[in-house]
């Protein structure tokens, strides 16, 4: 029997970030293990994007500590990205921008995200959903063991959201990389998450999705969505399997 403990890829220890006298992050502590799917939820202005930027080393914290695994390889997609319409880049050009990419790696990533037919298309002509998949492809090129996604379905229509969530879920399952994702779509993402972290400057609550929906603090924050979430989990858990 294999009792190997999964590797901790990244951990935050008492992270505090202050701006203009206000705590953006207040003593935030958690860890993310290899292969996990952690979704960060919380209201607008709760510090979610700031937390991701802290983890990426883009923002300097006031106190606390970030620990990263020695062989951590990060892939990242930002919350917003707008191609410059005056720079004639194709998708292939963009994927190769400022890095050397092996052809096999590009084809493998493009297949995972379904953009193979778009590689020679102008970047500026892509739809919102296509552009998000291209950003996801670029994030996968160095074969990350941690993929960080900041609201990847923002500004997509319902079909585009469902399609992108499906791609992300498939990437998690097929590549084995851990995923850390910010999202507002509770009923869509909680089923595929192994852990959910509810943030409002501090960690309000954190745990497995089916446990978290029973937490009073979570219920208080998301009372308006609990009926839909409970229906999802009743359907998901209350069933039997034939022997």
**Beta fraction of the residues?**
25-35%
On the 0 to 100 scale, the average pLDDT is: 86
| The top level CATH class name | Alpha Beta
Query: What shape does the CA trace take?
Result: globular
CATH-level-2 architecture: 3-Layer(aba) Sandwich
Q: CATH fold name, please? A: Rossmann fold
Highlighted features:
243 residues; alpha/beta; Rossmann fold; six-stranded mixed β-sheet; three-stranded antiparallel β-sheet; 9 helices; 9 strands; 25% strand; globular; disordered C terminus
Structure description:
- The protein is of the alpha/beta class and 243 residues long.
- It has a single domain (8-237), classed as Rossmann fold (3-Layer(aba) Sandwich).
- Helix content is 34%, strand content 25%.
- It has 9 helices and 9 strands.
- The strands form 2 sheets. It has a 6-stranded mixed β-sheet with strand order 5-6-7-3-8-9, with helices on both faces.
- Strand 1 and strand 2 (22-33) form a beta hairpin.
- Helix 3 crosses helix 4 (128-140) and helix 4 packs parallel to helix 5 (158-175).
- The two termini are 24 Å apart.
- The model is unreliable at 233-243 (pLDDT under 50).
Could you give a short description of this structure?
Helix content is 34%, strand content 25%. With 243 residues, the protein is α/β, with parallel strands linked by helices.
Write the layout of secondary structure elements.
Layout: E1 8-19, E2 22-33, E3 37-41, H1 48-55, E4 63-68, E5 74-77, H2 91-96, H3 103-113, H4 128-140, E6 146-150, H5 158-175, E7 178-182, H6 186-189, E8 195-200, E9 202-207, H7 209-212, H8 216-221, H9 226-237
Parallel strand pairs: 3-7, 3-8, 5-6, 6-7
Antiparallel strand pairs: 1-2, 1-4, 8-9
